[in-house]
UniProtKB/TrEMBL annotation, chains A, B:
Official protein name in the record: Phosphomethylpyrimidine synthase
GO annotation, biological process: thiamine biosynthetic process; thiamine diphosphate biosynthetic process
Record EC number: 4.1.99.17
Feature: compositional bias, Low complexity: 1-10
Binding-site residues for [4Fe-4S] cluster, renumbered to this chain: 451, 454, 459
Lineage: superkingdom: Bacteria
Keywords on record: 4Fe-4S, Iron, Iron-sulfur, Lyase, Metal-binding, S-adenosyl-L-methionine, Thiamine biosynthesis, Zinc
Enzymatic reactions: 5-amino-1-(5-phospho-beta-D-ribosyl)imidazole + S-adenosyl-L-methionine = 4-amino-2-methyl-5-(phosphooxymethyl)pyrimidine + CO + 5'-deoxyadenosine + formate + L-methionine + 3 H(+)
Residue numbers binding substrate: 110, 139, 168, 203, 223-225, 264-267, 303, 330
Gene coding for it: thiC
UniProt-annotated stretches for the region Disordered: 1-20
InterPro entries for the chain: ThiC, ThiC/Bza_core_dom, ThiC/BzaA/B
Any one Gene Ontology cellular component term annotated for this protein: cytosol
Length: 494, 494
C-alpha cells in the first residue's frame, strides 16, 4: 500500500513515510523519568516542566528530527509555550509530534460515535483511515455506548496523540446537565489521563457574564461543551465550575502531562456571528487561563472557530497571539460560507489554509457530513485529504523549509510524463491513478506524452518540451535539475 | 427539481432561480440595433461602443436588474472597461450577464471533448449540469471530432455566454503547428463569431522574446494556446502572428460584439513557477493589447493563473489591475499546491476564493480530473460546486450587498432545526438531504432537534435554545428576527 503512511499503525515501531524512525522505547524513557521523580519528589511530568529546567527530553529530540529543526529550538519553544508536545506518559504507543508555529502545520481528525450511530470496530477503522492519510492527532468525541472502552481501544491502537472532551463522558454519567459538578469532572479526567489521553478540550472560558452576549447571534452557542456549560450556569445562576476549579484540573494535567486544549465554547456557528463580542470576551479569558496553566508548567493550546468570512481570518490569529501570548492556535475550519452542507470539507479547507498561513498551528478537519450527521469512514478520508491540502498549502505560503519539495517533485514528474511517479507523489495515489485510468487504462499510457484531457495533438507539455529544445539550442539555456528532490521525495513515499 | 436553477435551460425564456425574468426578446433588441446601424453606417456592435456613446442597452438594463445595481453604473463600468457583458449579437439564446469587480463574482465551466473521449450528447449533458448548478459562463474547449457542430449545439442550448479558444479549431484544420497562419485564423474566428460565440481566448501576448524566460521553469509552458504559439514562433523564428495582426482580429470582435479574453499563455503550471518574469512580461503586453482593443471599443477581460502559493495571490490581482487598467480579471484557480491530483477542485478553490476576494471578476473552475483526464459529468458538477463556494465566499468577504443573505437564512434554518429549509437553501439540496437521511431517513427526523452527529442529549443548538430562554427572561434580550430574509431566500429557490 502506498499513500502517505506517515505512521505505522498500532504498535508504534518501525519506519514510516516521513523517513524517520518510530521510537521503540517510549515506555523506557518514561520509566527513567519516573525513577528520577521518585528521587526528587517532583512529579510534574509535563514537557514544558522539563524544557523550563533546560532539559531536552527524548520526545523533544524525536520531534526535532521529524521537523528538521534543532532540538534546542524545540526545547525553547516548549519552554516559552509557543509549541506543545502532547504526550501523556501513559500513552506509550505514541510517536511524539509537535504543535506550534515553528513546526509544520498539523491536522486533527475527529472521530467517535454518537448515541445513535457507530461502534468500536467502526471507530477503529476511522482511526486507521485518519492515520493512514496523514492525521497528526485524533480526537475521540464519542458520546454514546461504552465511552471508556472505545477510548481504551483507540488509545492502544493510536501512534498519534489522542484528544477528548471529558465533559461528554461526565454528562453521560448523569441524567441532566444540571447534575454536573466538579468532583465528577475531576474523577473523569483522572481516569482518562490515566488511560493515556494526550490532550483535553476544556471549556473553562465560557463565563456566566458572557452568556447575554450570544443573544444577538443567529446560531447562539454551537460548541457542545460551550452550550453544556452555558446551560449549567444559567440553570444554577453560578459561575463556570471549570473556571472556578482551574487549578485543581491543572494538577491532574501536570501529573500525566496532559495538554490543555482550551475550548472556544463561544465560537461562531455561522459567518454572521464571527468575530463578535462574545467570541473575543472568551478568548481574553482563555489568555488568562493560559498564563495560569503556565505557572504550573502545563502545556496549552487554544481552540478557535468555526465559521469566519475570509476578510476576518487574519484578525483571528492576530487576536489569539495577542491575548494568549502566542500559545499554539488550534482551529476548526473555519468555514468561509454557510451555504454548502454536504461540502463543508471544502468551505472549511479554504478558511483552514488561510488561517494556517497566518499562523494557526493545527487545523481541525471538517468532513462533508458536518451539520448533517456522524461522519463515516469515507467522510473521514475526504476530510483528511482536504486538510492535508490546507496544511500543506499553509506550509508553502509560510516558506517553511523544504515545504515545496514534494510539489516540485510531482510537477517535474508531470512535466516529464512520468505518470507512475506523479501518482506515487500525490496525496492519494489510488484516486489519482484511478481517475487517469478511467479513460486510458493501458500500461502503454503510463509513459504517454499526453492524457485524455487533450490527447497527443493538443498537449501543452508535449509542445513545451520542443520549446525547451529551442531554448537549449538557440540560447544555451538548460532546465533546472530536479533529480535529487525527486529521488528524496520518492524515497519518503516508498 | 430544486437546486440553483439560475437559468432555464435552452430556450432562454421564463422565470429563473434568481427571481428575475429571462429576456424573451433579445433577437428583437438586436434587430432594432442592426436597423440603427443600417441608418448610421456604424457597425460596431459592442456593448462598450454603446456605453461610450452614453446609451444603456437592453443588456445593460437586464444585467443591472440581475445584479441589483443601477443601469447607469453598469453603463459607466462597461464604458471604462472595468466590466464586460459578453453577448454576441448572434447568440440570441443568451441571458446577458456581467463580469466585473462591481458585480457578483462569476464562475466559468470548461467543457468540450478531446480527440480521445466524449461526443456531442455527453457535452450537452455537461452543459446542462454546469448551468443547472450555477455556471455563469461555459467554455467549449473541444479539440476532437466535428468541432463546429458540437459548438453549434452548445450555443443553441446555452443561456449563458459561451467562450472558445479559436486556435484549437485552427490547429485541427492543419497538419502541424507550423502550418498555422493569420488568414486561416481570421477565417475561423469569423465563422465562430457568426455562430454566436461570446468570447474568444486569444494568446496574443506570448511574444518571441519571452520564450527564453521559461527555460528556468519546472513545467515550462502549460497553456495549450501558449505552447502552440511558442512552438510556432520558435519553428519560424517569427513574432506571434496574433500580436502582429491584432487590429484585424479586433475588427471581427467589434462586428459581432465578441469579447476578448486575453489568454495567459505563460501562466505558471506549478507553484514553483508562479509570479516569475515570463508571467509578468506577458501580462504587461496584455495591458498594451487591452488599451489597443479599447481604442476600437472592444470589450476585454484578462486571463490569469494557474498555480500560485497563497502568499502571492494578492500580488496577482494588484499587478493585473496596474498593468491592465482594471480590465476584469478571469482566473483559472489558482491551485495553491501541486500535490493533490484527483482533488484539484479543492486545491484550486482555496486560491480561487482568495483571488475572488482580492478582486478577480470571474473564476474558471478546475475539476477533480485536472492533470489526469477529460472531466465527465460528475467531475463538472464537483468543479461547479467547489467554485460556487469560492465565488460566494469572495462575495461575502468583499461585502457585496446582500451576499450574506443566503448564509444567514440557512444558518437560521439550521438553528431552528428546520431541516427541509436547510436543504432547500443549500448549494446542492439533494446531496445535503441524502447525507442527512443516510442515518436518519424517517420524516419524523425532519423536525427533530438533533442529527446523528450528536443525538438528542448532545446537541449544542438544542441546549443553546434554552440559553436563549434564559437571556429573554433574565435580560429581556431577543434573538434577531430573520423571517424576511428566510422568506426572500426561499422564494428565490422555489
Amino acid at each position: 500500500m502506498s499513500g502517505n503512511g506517515q505512521h505505522t499503525h498500532g504498535n508504534g515501531a518501525g519506519a514510516n513515510g516521513n523517513g524517520y524512525k518510530v521510537p521503540t522505547g517510549r515506555a523506557e524513557w518514561i520509566v527513567k523519568r519516573k525513577a528520577e521523580a521518585e528521587r526528587t519528589g517532583d512529579w510534574n511530568m509535563s514537557q514544558m516542566h522539563f524544557a523550563r529546567k533546560g532539559l531536552i527530553t527524548e520526545e523533544m529530540a524525536f520531534v526535532a528530527q521529524k521537523e528538521k529543526i534543532s532540538a534546542e529550538l524545540v526545547r525553547s519553544e516548549v519552554a516559552k509555550g509557543t509549541m506543545i508536545i502532547p504526550a501523556n506518559i501513559n500513552h506509550v504507543e505514541l510517536e511524539p509530534m509537535a504543535i506550534g508555529v515553528e513546526s509544520l502545520c498539523k491536522i486533527n481528525a475527529n472521530i467517535g460515535n454518537s448515541a445513535l450511530v457507530s461502534n468500536v470496530d467502526e471507530e477503529l477503522r476511522k482511526l486507521h483511515t485518519a492515520v493512514h492519510f496523514g492525521a497528526d492527532t485524533v480526537m475521540d468525541l464519542s458520546t454514546g455506548g461504552d465511552i471508556p472502552m472505545i477510548r481504551e481501544q483507540i488509545l492502544r491502537h493510536s501512534p498519534v496523540p489522542i484528544g477528548t472532551v471529558p465533559l461528554y463522558e461526565a454528562l453521560s454519567r448523569v441524567k441532566r446537565v444540571e447534575d454536573l459538578n466538579i468532583d465528577l469532572y475531576l474523577e473523569v479526567i483522572e481516569e482518562q489521563a490515566q488511560q493515556g489521553v494526550d490532550y483535553f478540550t476544556i471549556h473553562a472560558g465560557v463565563l456566566i457574564q458572557y452568556v447575554p452576549l450570544v443573544a444577538k447571534r443567529i446560531t447562539g452557542i454551537v460548541s457542545r461543551g460551550g452550550a453544556i456549560m452555558a446551560q449549567w450556569m444559567t440553570a444554577h445562576h453560578k459561575q463556570n465550575f471549570l473556571y472556578e476549579n482551574f487549578d485543581r484540573i491543572t494538577k491532574v494535567m501536570a501529573k500525566y502531562d496532559v495538554s490543555y486544549s482550551l475550548g472556544d465554547g463561544l465560537r461562531p456557528g455561522c459567518v454572521a456571528d464571527a468575530s463578535d463580542e462574545a467570541q473575543f470576551a472568551e478568548l481574553k479569558t482563555l489568555g488568562e487561563l493560559t498564563r495560569q496553566a503556565w505557572k504550573s508548567d502545563v502545556q496549552v493550546m487554544i481552540e478557535g472557530p468555526g465559521h469566519v468570512p475570509m476578510d476576518k481570518i487574519k484578525e483571528q490569529v492576530d487576536k489569539e497571539v495577542e491575548l494568549c501570548d502566542g500559545a499554539p492556535f488550534y482551529v476548526l475550519g473555519p468555514l468561509v460560507t454557510d451555504i454548502a452542507p454536504g461540502y463543508d470539507h471544502i468551505t472549511s479547507a479554504i478558511g483552514a489554509a488561510m488561517i494556517g498561513w497566518h499562523g494557526a498551528a493545527m487545523l481541525c478537519y471538517v468532513t462533508p457530513k458536518e451539520h448533517l450527521g456522524l461522519p463515516n469512514e469515507k467522510d473521514v478520508k475526504d476530510g483528511i485529504i482536504a486538510y492535508k491540502i490546507a496544511a500543506h498549502a499553509a506550509d508553502i505560503a509560510r516558506h517553511r523549509p523544504g515545504a515545496r519539495d514534494r510539489d516540485d517533485a510531482i510537477s517535474h514528474a508531470r512535466y516529464t510524463f512520468d505518470w507512475d511517479k506523479q501518482f506515487a507523489l500525490s496525496l492519494d495515489p489510488d484516486t489519482a491513478r484511478g481517475m487517469h485510468d478511467e479513460t486510458l487504462p493501458d500500461d502503454y499510457y503510463k509513459e504517454a506524452a499526453f492524457c485524455s484531457m487533450c490527447g497527443p495533438k493538443f498537449c501543452s507539455m508535449n509542445w513545451s518540451s520542443k520549446v525547451d529544445e529551442f531554448n537549449a539550442k538557440e540560447h544555451g539555456l538548460k532546465k533546472p535539475d530536479l533529480t535529487q528532490i525527486v529521488t528524496e521525495q520518492m524515497a519518503l513515499r516508498s
